[in-house]
Amino acid sequence: MVGSKVSVSSSGSAAEARTVQNHALVIELLSDLIRAPLCQTDAAIDRVLSRLGAFCDMDQACLVRLRHKDGSACADTTHAWRSPQNTARTAMGDVLLPQIIDALRTRFVADCDTVIDMLDVSALPATVPEKKLFSAYGIGALLALPMQAGGRCTGFIGFTASSSRQPFDGAEVQLLKTVADAVGNLLARVDAESEIARTRDSLAAARNRLQATLDALPDLILEVDAEGRYRSVHTRDPGQMMLSPEALIGHTDEELMPPDIVALNRQAMAEARLKGRSGPHPFDIDTPRGRRRYVLTVTTRAANKSDEKPGYVFIARDMTEEWRLQRETERLSLIARHMTNLVLIADTEQRIEWVNPAFEARTGWLLEDVRGRHPQEISRGPETDSTTKMRIDTALAALEPVRDEILNYTRDGTPYWVDVQVYPLLGSDGAHVGYVSVETDITERKRQDAALERLAHDANEARARLEMAVEALPDAFAYYDAENHLVLCNQRHRDLYPNAEVSTGARLNDLSESIAGIDAAMTYCLGPQFAGQGAYTKGSIGVNYACLEIGRIPAAAASIARGVWCFGMTAS
């Protein structure tokens, strides 16, 4: 140790004293390295570089580590020292330049046992490739000590001076190399401890992720050994279990479970032993929440030790609600299959998942032809109303039910009308899971509506023509229905009753003027059998009113005697 006082006999030589001091220094440095906590490794190495640099009478020192990163070799300068007494500063600064590091690394890779000791760079033969490089950077002397760990070179400690220096004997060089190897082994231990810590952290993170995954699963997970004895139980919901985890651990099914569960578990274990996996197996069991349906899957688990047999992992999932929903879906599907309405079920992207036979029969599209396609692709055509399409599409995008009438087309292009009702489907958790469309074929009703519209239009035109013809008559004309309400008359008829209100709907008996004149007119028009005795009485013409079209009134009237201008009609 520099500054240490080592006593020697007066008869001892100076060389022996130097040897004792050298050994004392090395022992002290090694002790410092060994005792340093891992968290203080860098400080211990800095002290070693400082004391070795002073011992070697060098200006600068640095520690270079040779490592592999991402599959390629690299060299990193991790520690450096510069003598505070030496004001001269070489061009390499506080660390070795990359060119110098590469030159030294090449030599140590070829021979990791030999120390590179250049006492006077200027005195080197011109054939030495490093001479020009070292001289260019002001290096007068260089000492490089390889560090070994695990039988390979892990780096080196390099010392440089701006001028030449005195040589070391072989024993001194070996002592210096021992210190360098100790530094290399210390760094290797630090790396190993760091790797262990990283592995420990990685395992802890993986364990935490696994635990979080298990906690997120609704399943009941049980681990059993080769004999079927429960070794561990995991569930986030202990309330679903027949027995507590503590009651299961260390016991077999035969000791705790009903015979049917024992038989199922043993059968699944046997199948898993042969195939690696067994299930899913549905089964019913009584739980604290009542009778529930579970699905069991069993897989094999590798043995933890070489002398152990493989065990098994049981995964049981409560499928009660899904099973009930499936049964309900099957019943609804059976109903839908026998419906005459056109039923279509689509997913959340409005892609067809299922259609009933009535849909196939009416449209000509089979389920295998339309599955995965959008209904709009196969049902809409050139005459489909764009406003109706937009109204339906907007409601579907907003997840709102919608009902409308729309013109669709069959596979062969035949148009047909439907009354369509579309509802968004929601799961038990309220999430959107798809759509259901129920269509009623209203093509015939649309045809009837169109026919009635044509009849009404024709009737309106006939009435208009009749009114024009009545107004053109030279005589007064009036037509009353079976209840004596005025239906139609011309202006000449109104002129007969200037003091009465003559308008559509007026009653005949409200016309108080000249009843005798009316009787005379009726006698003239229809004959004496229609004349009243003391009061006006209207006869009836035997015509079926419900079937009579307005355009045929003149023809019906013309079939009665002569010149009929006023007559009644009684519905049959």
Model regions low in confidence, pLDDT < 50 over at least 5 residues: 1-11, 89-95, 512-527, 529-572
Q: Helix content range of the residues, please?
A: 40-55%
Strand order of the largest sheet: 2-1-5-4-3
Q: What's the tally of helices?
A: 17
What's the average pLDDT? Answer: 78
CATH architecture of the largest domain: 2-Layer Sandwich
**Secondary structure tally: strands:** 18
Morphology call: elongated
Largest sheet: 5 strands, antiparallel
Proportion of residues in extended strands = 15-25%
Provide the structure class: alpha+beta
The CATH homologous superfamily of the largest domain corresponds to GAF domain
- Name of the top-level CATH class of the largest domain: Alpha Beta
CATH overall fold name of the largest domain? Beta-Lactamase
User: What's the end-to-end separation, in Å?
Assistant: 138 Å
Q: What integer value in Å does the Rg equal?
A: 55 Å
Textual characterization of the structure:
Pfam families: GAF, PAS_4. This is PAS domain S-box-containing protein. Residues 328-373 form the PAS domain. Keywords: Coiled coil. The chain is an alpha+beta fold and 572 residues long. The chain folds into four domains: 14-193, Beta-Lactamase, CATH 3.30.450.40; 217-318, PAS domain (Beta-Lactamase); 324-441, PAS domain (Beta-Lactamase, 2-Layer Sandwich); 466-567, no CATH class. It is built from 17 helices and 18 strands. It has helices at 14-35, 41-55, 98-110, 129-136, 170-216, 245-248, 253-256, 259-275, 320-337, 357-363, 367-370, 375-379, 386-397, 443-472, 491-495, 515-526, 553-558, and strands at 60-69, 72-82, 116-118, 141-149, 152-161, 220-224, 230-234, 277-287, 290-301, 311-318, 342-346, 352-355, 402-409, 415-426, 432-441, 478-480, 486-489, 566-567. A five-stranded antiparallel sheet has the order 2-1-5-4-3. A five-stranded antiparallel sheet has the order 7-6-10-9-8, sandwiched between helices. A five-stranded antiparallel sheet has the order 12-11-15-14-13, sandwiched between helices. Helix 2 (41-55) packs antiparallel against helix 5. The longest helix is centred in the middle third of the chain and has 47 residues, at 170-216. It is elongated and about 165 Å long. The relative contact order is 0.04. Residues 1-11, 89-95, 512-527 and 529-572 have low confidence and may be disordered.
